[in-house]
UniProtKB/TrEMBL annotation:
Cofactor(s) listed: Fe(2+); L-ascorbate
InterPro entries: AlphaKG_dependent_hydroxylases, GBBH-like_N, GBBH-like_N_sf, TauD-like_sf, TauD/TfdA-like, Trimethyllysine_dOase
Pathway connected to this protein: Amine and polyamine biosynthesis; carnitine biosynthesis
Species of origin: Scomber scombrus (Atlantic mackerel)
Identification of the protein by name: Trimethyllysine dioxygenase, mitochondrial
GO MF: iron ion binding; trimethyllysine dioxygenase activity
Length: 381
């Protein structure tokens, strides 16, 4: 049984609220005098705030654009009221002070903006490039096994928010999580999925059963073993969470191979940073072409094999599927051979035996898979 769901990232406040800081400075005075834990410098195109260990640069248009006053920002909807296109691109504050832990700017025309120093620090580019968007524990088989992560229990999972929270914490850290004792029905599987998030409609439907009957134009509907891969790489927005439940199993086989693609990517970055960069900045196409009596589909997704946030180079998504990878015609000739060499080194890392985690789903055991991290092999149910 397979479902797909989208789950928004859980955000936490990384910085506490800061208390009083008082500093007075006139616009013409380039450097403030020290009177608190915060100092600032007014430069031609930005304000430089010294608050903590790292100087932070704030563009003046950015500051006006991010004003949180009632006329500029709707706190109830968390949406901007201000028309960014109306801001003078040469705007400068007439007066700048730090009062009671806030940076206070008075703009031409008299509008006043107040920013918490903690909020500025949290949302500065300098801060964002130093912290992870989503903290993770990268693992091979030994690391994951020794972590001894307990599965959630069906009854408790469906009735206790703390059990769901624990499940999600494991999922966010490791990319996979399990629920045991789920009734082997489509309805129970759907209930588990909806306990976590919404179910996304796809060309396969919302919930669907599959077996090795070739009912769809995909190798997954066969008894052929599949090498490690990520699914729906041909979607412009690949699935966020993929949920599997074995409803019935007769015969042999049926094991699933999981590999942490992020772990392998970081290994590649350490060993061959230039190969990592090539895989991270070279877009390729994946496509799904289905032409059967009942289904006609052609979908294309474009993106690098390894996707990173440009501001901190953190890996956030992987598109690795040798089955669905389309014709490579997006890489110039002088880089193509180097791309294949980089792809081979990443593939070699993914295939190391010590990186393989083998599990077998049985009726009642549901696996939630961080679809962009774990790489399932064939299930042969």
């Amino acid at each position: 049984m397979l479902t797909s769901a989208m789950f928004g990232t859980l955000y936490r406040n990384l910085l506490p609220a800061y208390k009083q800081a008082q500093l007075l400075c006139g616009f013409r005075n380039a450097q403030t005098t020290w009177r608190s834990a915060a100092t600032f410098t007014l430069q031609e195109d930005c304000l430089v705030l010294n608050y903590g260990d790292t100087p932070m640069h704030f563009n003046y248009v950015w500051l006006r654009d991010h004003c949180r006053s009632a006329s500029s920002y709707n706190a109830k909807t968390n949406q901007r009221n201000l028309d960014t296109g109306s801001i003078d691109l040469n705007i400068r504050p007439d007066n700048t002070t730090v009062e009671d832990g806030h940076l206070v700017l008075t703009w031409p025309g008299g509008h006043v903006s107040k920013y918490s120093l903690g909020w500025l620090a949290e949302n500065s580019y300098e801060r964002k490039k130093q912290v992870s968007v989503q903290p993770r524990i990268l693992w091979n088989s030994d690391i994951y096994t020794k972590a001894n992560i307990a599965s959630a229990k069906w009854d408790k999972f469906m009735s206790c928010d703390d059990e769901v929270k624990k499940f999600l914490q494991n999922y966010l850290l490791y990319g996979i999580a399990f629920v045991d004792g789920v009734p082997a029905t489509v309805e129970a599987t759907e209930a588990v999925t909806q306990r976590v998030s919404l179910i996304r409609e796809t060309t396969y439907g919302r919930m669907w059963c599959f077996t090795s009957d070739f009912s769809r134009g995909d190798t997954a509907y066969s008894q052929l073993a599949l090498d490690r891969h990520t699914d729906t790489s041909y979607f412009q927005e690949p699935c966020g969470i993929q949920v599997f439940h074995c409803l019935k199993h007769e015969g042999t086989g049926g094991r699933t191979l999981l590999v942490d693609g992020f772990y392998a990517a970081e290994k590649l970055r350490q060993q061959s940073p230039e190969k990592f960069e090539l895989l991270a900045r070279t877009p390729i196409r994946h496509e799904y072409i289905e032409n059967t009596d009942n289904h006609r589909n052609h979908m294309t997704g474009v993106g690098p094999l390894v996707n990173v946030y440009p501001w901190n180079n953190e890996v956030y998504m992987i598109r690795y599927n040798n089955y669905d990878r389309s014709v490579i015609n997006t890489i110039p000739h002088d880089a193509l051979q180097r791309w294949y060499v980089a792809h081979r080194e990443y593939t070699t890392e993914l295939r190391l035996p010590e990186n393989e985690l083998w599990v077998k789903l049985t009726p009642g055991k549901v696996r939630g898979l961080h679809f962009l991290k774990g790489m399932p092999e064939n299930n042969n149910y």
